[in-house]
Amino acid sequence: MVTGKRRLGFFLRREPGMTTTSCAKELAKSSRESIGILDWECMGGRRACRQRGRRATVWFLIFLRHRQDSGLRPIALPEDNRAVILEIVHYGHPALRMKGRRIAAVDAGIRKLAADMLETMTAANGVGLAAQQVGRPLLLCVLDISCVTDRPSRMFVEGREVDAAAWMPLVLINPEISVSGRERSATEGCLSFPDLSGEVPRPERTGVRATGLDGRPLEFEATGLLSRALQHEFDHLQGILYIDRMATKERRRLDGPIQQLLEETASKSGMPARA
Ligand SMILES: [Zn+2]
User: Fold this and answer.
1) Given this model, what pLDDT does residue 67 score?
2) What residues have a C-beta under 5 A from ligand 1, the ion?
3) Annotated catalytic residue within 119, 188, 233, 250
4) Residue 233 is among the residues annotated as catalytic for this protein
5) Contact criterion met (CB below 8 Å) for 254 and 198
6) For residues 112 and 133, what is the distance between their CA atoms, to the nearest angstrom?
7) Low-confidence spans in the chain with pLDDT less than 50
């Protein structure tokens, strides 16, 4: 799902002789809260260098996620493992209609894929990306709504409201969702449908059970944009696209551009596209 501009997390400088993990531990010591840490050194290092125009400077980006239930659980990626921007496949690519395979173990390969997907989503100004969209039919999606200010999101953990932005980015492995509440229509876009958007009705509340990138269970509820983005990404994992959810009239309005996109995808791959 795509909307608005994104903001980055924050940067920490890595002192000589310290690893990212030991820097993170120092940070956690000075914080009053229990902190779960997702270590995206591979993403932040490059982005920081680009922003500062000083390629040699070693900075790294770390996202902190406040959790009531956990201590410090850093996940380190190998030092030489740099996140890359993947190709996002467009409508007509067969992977978009495939159901995701269950992920048996959260290993280094999955962590690398998740890091690459976050990098790819960020570069494309998206708020959500499913593995199908990078040609990998797996039950894995990433989300980050923290940059969107004009479409509010609410998030609830164990019935209590939490700061949704502090929980971003989300990496959801083998997610299951339940939806409830009134259906509401709002505009959606999709990174696999460049420059297209349309009204999609969806129930207002989403409950999620998934495995996080740390291999532990993750359970929460959401409303607002986050709820919509979760349903959009969960659909991708089942091979369902947002155009399938549109009212007939709205879908017809987009018939021309969608057909054109299908033909472009077919001519690019040299294979018949799959609608
Ligand atoms: Zn999408």
Assistant:
1) 34
2) 190
3) 233
4) yes
5) yes
6) 16
7) 2-15, 28, 30-80
Minimal CA–CA distance to 60: which of 90, 15, 26?
Answer: 15
Looking at residue 63, its pLDDT comes to 39
What pLDDT is stored for residue 27 in this prediction? 53
Structural domains of the chain in order of their starting residue, each with its CATH number:
83-269 (3.90.45.10)
Q: Which amino acid is it at 143?
A: L
Edge-first strand order for the sheet with 217-223 is 128-130, 140-143, 170-189, 197-211, 217-223, 153-157, 160-162
What are the structure tokens assigned to 235, written together? 């659909």
Which residues is 219 bridged to in the sheet?
209
Alpha carbons within 13 angstroms on the beta-carbon side of residue 27 total: 26
Q: Order of strands across the sheet with 35-39? A: 10-13, 59-66, 35-39
- CA distance from start to end of the chain: 19
> How far away, in angstroms, is 201 Cα from ligand 1 center?
15
CA of 164 to the centre of ligand 1 (A): 21
Question: Under a CB-based contact definition with an 8 Å cutoff, are residues 263 and 273 in contact?
Answer: yes
- Selection from 43, 35, 234 nearest residue 123 by Cα: 43
**Strand partners of residue 172:** 141
Q: Which residue has the tokens 């980050």?
A: 144
Distance of CA 94 to the CA centre of its chain: 21
